[in-house]
Each structure stands twice: as C-alpha cells, then as structure tokens.
C-alpha cells in the first residue's frame, strides 16, 4: 500500500502533483495504516513472532506493524525511504511513549536495507514487506531489488513475508482503484492500477531467489468514518499519484467521491470488504 521503498517515485511523464508529504504521512498513520492490522496479526500468529524474533520491516511506513511485533517481544528494525513516515514511526516506537511496549532494541533507519547492517549483529529471523503489491502495473519491479539488499542480512532459512491484493472480485476497493487507471490513462504510465494476478507474490519470490513455504488469505476491510476520510486515506497510499499527475487533485477527489458512493452506509460511514494474500518464503 505505501509509496515508500517500492513506489517512492512518481511517473516520469508530466509534472509531479503537489502533495503535502507531512499531511499525507499523517493521513496514512491516522486513517489508512490500521486497515492492514488483520494482515499483520495473521502473519505474526502463524510465524509465532516473539522474543526469539529479530525482525526487519521493509517499507515500515509509520511503524504500526513494528509496534505490534515489538509488543509480542520481538526485536524490530524498520527501514523506509519516506522521512515523513519515519518521523511518525519514531514517535510510535519511543520506549517512553504512553501505551507502547516497544523493546529498547527497536531501530528505525532512513534509506535502504543495506543501511540497517550492524557489524557483528546476528542475522534477522524474519523479513517483512507488508506493502501490498499487485494493484499497480510494475509495482513489484523495485521489490525484488529491495529484497536482494535485505537477504544478506537475514539468517539462512529466515522467513520472508510478501503481501499482495487478493482477486478483484474479493476486493470491493478494486472498483474505486479503477479511478486511478481511468484518470492516468493519458500518461500510459507504469504506475496505474491493474487487477492483481494469482502469482504476483510467487513471481517476486522467484526473482529474489527465495523458496515459497506457504501462503494465506486475510480479510482486511477498509472502513472509514465518512467519505472525506476515505478519500484522504486512499490518497495517502500513493496509488492515485499517477492520476493526480495526469489531471489534478480536485479531479481525483471528485472521481473518488463518486466511486465511493455505492460503499457509503446510511450513517455516512464507508465500508469496503477486501481480501489480502500473503506469501511466506525462505532464504537460501
């Protein structure tokens, strides 16, 4: 979901949309990131994440997945290319922050996976790439390279978790994401929406030299207090950047509002059931 390690670059054609990156990061942290909590929980439960876990989170965003792992006793390291989201992650993972149980080992590193290397430190037992792929054309291209950087830092046989969107017929949000494709069509950019394919995650694992070792599906409904929150949350994912480049922010807001109308309930809330898929792979 996040425009960080994998989707940090806007399309080359056209002028980049003017975006308040701090506001977008805050919208991600306060509105959108929680939609993936069921995915984080399912993966951590299946892999028995706990005090013996050394976790490296790729594209960790504003740190919610790291906080959940740390609460289970894991030693966590997160890396992300967005300074704005990393600032929010640092707030969340401060040991003295009220309500957190993050261990002192929690580390947050701006940049790329290689920047997390610590001479003499034991290898990571778990590497996560929770940003779902499979809904933007070319969105998996950068992930294989990021994984290649991370693999030397992991132990032999360490688990690597990749996440992706489920079949469009199981994801109500797919109809809304099609707005991105319609508006971005004039640019014919690789950043426009496309339906998820069955083997997206396996293809990335194969390119990274990883061995698939199980998968699962998780219900991750997108629920918002109102349409405005839904628009802000969805735009915070970066999935509509190409559309804003091809048109403008006002047009994207208008089209998104219209597309969300069928998912709005009588009380004004917005509800879209979705299914996400995860793949567990192993390092050689």
UniProtKB/TrEMBL annotation:
The keyword Methyltransferase applies. GO terms for biological process: methylation. Pfam families: Methyltransf_25. Residues 102-117 have a biased composition (Basic and acidic residues). It comes from the Bacteria. Gene3D superfamilies: Vaccinia Virus protein VP39 (3.40.50.150). The keyword DNA repair does not apply. Residues 95-119 are annotated as: Disordered. It is an enzyme of class 2 (transferase). Residues 56-117 form the Methyltransferase domain. One of its GO terms (molecular function) is methyltransferase activity. Its EC number is 2.1.-.-. Keywords: Methyltransferase, Transferase. This is Class I SAM-dependent methyltransferase.
